[in-house]
Design a protein that fits this description.
The protein has helices spanning 10-28, 75-78, 105-113, 126-142, 163-166, 196-205, 219-231, 240-245, 247-255, 257-264, and strands at 94-99, 118-123, 152-156, 172-178, 206-216, 235-237, 270-276. By secondary structure, it is α/β, with parallel strands linked by helices. The structure holds S-adenosylmethionine (SAM). Residues 56, 58, 100-102, 105, 122-125, 128, 157-160, 178-181, 193, 256-259 line the site of S-adenosylmethionine. Pfam families: Methyltransf_4.
Length: 283
Amino acid sequence: MKAGMSLDDPSSKRQAYRLKKEENRKELKHVKIDAKASSEKMDLPRKRFYRQRAHSNPFSDHQLEYPLSPDEMDWDRLYPHFVDEATGAMTKEVTIADIGCGFGGLLIDLSPAFADKLILGMEIRVQVTNYVEDRIIALRTNHAETNAYQNINVLRANSMKFLPNFFHKAQLEKMFFCFPDPHFKQRKHKARIITNTLLSEYAYVLKEGGVVYTITDVLDLHEWMVKHLEEHPLFERLSTEWEDQDECVEIMRNATEEGKKVERKKGAKYVACFTRLPTPEIV
Ligand SMILES: C[S@@+](CC[C@H](N)C(=O)[O-])C[C@H]1O[C@@H](n2cnc3c(N)ncnc32)[C@H](O)[C@@H]1O
């Protein structure tokens, strides 16, 4: 702890907690956690120590690290259980992305449902990303005997800027946009995570037949997302019958922290899902 800090002061308490967690994170973040490495249980992180202002400007130049191309990404550090020990190569690639994953609830519920897929959360806020990392480290440690939660991880990233640096063309099967920031004022609409330009990037990283999932409690944002996706030539809306039988829609409605908040307030949840259409041939 820094000089002059007292543990009675809430901000010092938070600082001390964060420092302790940071040391733990540095040590375990990229380590292969398994029953051989650990038998001790670990406390789940406490959200109140990771408070951060609600919004982070997606246009500012955060000091973000990103690979020059997808081939330069060290996925083995995020998913050490999926590395072939003989060759050192990854045995799988990420195929599911949760864009703006917040505190990671969706990742955690998707993990057992898609145990053979690698799932990545992308989050722009530092403390929120730290929380998700600490949550995954604790879950991996506490389930070391079963190797659960090895298929999920999180990256601090601005997914409005660097998506093609992380993913190859047609790499993803599913992209989730759960309760994105609404940016209510008209002059802020350009900061919304679904725009015409960004949709072309999402279409690039999604494979044909892949699915974009959206959910929000803000009707205006729902209509905005539907309008932009419907207008885009590479997306087509899926029916409500399709939504009703899809496992991910069920998980998405109930798993995320924002979704739970809306549930407690008995608010509405608007869902819209779109399939990635085949790219037309240029003649
Ligand atoms: C309202 S929260 C929803 C979080 C989560 N999806 C849920 O449903 O609980 C929106 C999240 O998106 C993150 N975010 C906003 N813009 C982003 C961007 N360009 N790249 C990555 N994350 C972003 C925010 O920091 C915030 O945590």
